[in-house]
UniProtKB/TrEMBL annotation:
Parts of the chain that traverse the membrane: none
UniProt cross-references to InterPro entries, sorted A to Z: GDSL_Est/Lipase, SGNH_hydro_sf
GO molecular function: hydrolase activity
Record's keyword terms, sorted: Hydrolase, Signal
Residues annotated as signal peptide: 1-25
Keyword Manganese: no
Protein name listed in UniProt: GDSL lipase/esterase
Lineage: superkingdom: Eukaryota
Source organism of this protein record: Leucosporidium creatinivorum
Nucleus is among the record's keywords: no
Length: 394
């Protein structure tokens, strides 16, 4: 070993001597006429070298531990929302721009054309959620309202072709894919806050599944098929929603990713349901038909609620939030206590728009239903307030 190398090791050894157990051996490294006694230095230098390795390894371990602690801390995410992403069908479709081949998903005829093809007499729930007049309001940054990115299409189902269901419009799974593609390309304006994702899909799917059972005369096998098909709808929608959670493009651009999974209304008491039962059915068979619709609607909602609970656990560690809104319970309460919601017409199933005569009521806010399936815009506003309150923890 050269004198220079020995001098460097001795210097390092002297530094380690401040806390090293080898300090006692260091005096044996005497310099003679500017040179280090190599024979005396060898055993001490070997020990010093081992000590250096231990120090380096300890330092690496300490740094790794510090890094782990840092990564385990939740990222400080904004509390406000800058975007609301909507997926669903007519209860969620705000008449957004769409390709001409999907124009039939809008009602471009009287009286719906007065509201740009919406299936009600004004704004739908997700529009009210980000409206400046709605209270409680979603948290926002200053005066900047969350931007609504609506991907819903009236008449759509969960997945075209699933369990015999389908429509000519992009299904919920297609809507989610389109959204994620927009996120990746940068055309979805997520801005700087949290992104709230809203899902309300399944009404059309469940009606189609139910009608298949009606067409089969409510046989035991058709009822079993309806229940099996309902489970498939839940599974496919849940898997599609999870793709949002797994999106690396979204994770890199969003500043918090939250989810609101909205159940279906109580379909067996919605006016259109009674009209869809074949007139040839006896009273008992009609009751059986509506009972099946109640069963598969409840099954669907229970499946979504269970999924939302699972998703909540999955995203909790990264600071994201998941909510399930029980729309069926609201529907039952509006039917049982309509005046609580400003609904004064009787019976509560009476519609504002009479499709037989073409007349439209002059007091729509006194109604629950605009037509036999869709609520009036004032009920959409009630839904928005309920969902906002849920998100705010009120």
């Amino acid at each position: 070993m050269s004198p220079i190398a020995l001098r460097q090791l001795v210097s390092l050894a002297l530094l380690l001597s401040l806390a090293s157990p080898f300090a006692a051996a260091l005096p044996t490294l005497q310099e003679r006429d500017g040179a280090v006694d190599a024979s005396a230095a060898a055993p001490v230098l070997a020990a010093v070298s081992q000590e250096l390795v231990q120090v380096v390894n300890a330092t690496k371990l300490s740094n790794a531990s510090a890094s782990s602690v840092s990564l385990s801390k939740k990222v400080s995410l904004p509390a406000y929302y800058s975007a609301l992403v909507a997926v669903g069908a007519s209860y969620t479709d705000n008449a957004h721009a769409r390709a001409s081949k999907y124009s039939s998903s809008l009602r471009q005829y009287y009286p719906y054309n007065k509201w740009n093809g919406r299936y009600t007499n004004g704004k739908v729930g997700v529009e009210w959620m980000v409206d400046s007049s709605t209270s409680p309001a979603l948290k926002r940054s200053g005066s900047n309202l969350p931007k609504l990115l609506d991907y819903a299409y009236g008449g759509s189902v969960v997945q075209n072709g699933l369990s015999g269901t389908g429509s000519s419009s992009p299904a919920a799974v297609d809507q989610i894919s389109a959204y994620l593609a927009d996120v990746k390309s940068g055309s979805a304006a997520l801005v700087s806050g949290r992104v709230l994702h809203y899902f309300n899909s399944g009404i059309n799917s469940q009606y189609q599944i139910w009608n298949a059972a009606l067409s089969a005369g409510l046989s035991d096998s058709s009822i079993a098929n309806a229940k099996s098909a309902t489970s498939a709808q839940v599974s496919v929608l849940a898997a599609a929603i999870r793709t949002i959670k797994k999106s690396s493009a979204l994770a890199s651009k969003a500043h918090g990713v939250d989810f609101v999974v909205v159940g279906l209304p109580a379909l067996e008491i919605v006016p259109t349901s009674a009209y869809q039962v074949p007139s040839s059915f006896s009273a008992d068979k009609k009751a059986k038909a509506l009972s099946l619709l109640k069963t598969i609607t409840a099954q669907y909602n229970a499946g979504l609620k269970s999924f939302a609970a699972e998703l909540k656990t999955e995203v909790k560690s990264v600071g994201d939030r998941v909510y399930f809104y029980d729309l069926a319970s609201l529907w039952y309460d509006m039917h049982s206590n309509p005046k609580r919601y400003g609904i004064t017409v009787s019976p509560v199933t009476k519609t504002c728009y009479n499709s037989s005569t073409g007349s439209v009521c002059s007091n729509p806010s006194s109604y629950l239903y605009f037509d036999t399936l869709h609520p009036v815009t004032s009920v959409h506003a009630i839904i928005a307030k309920k969902v906002n309150a849920l998100v705010l923890g009120a």
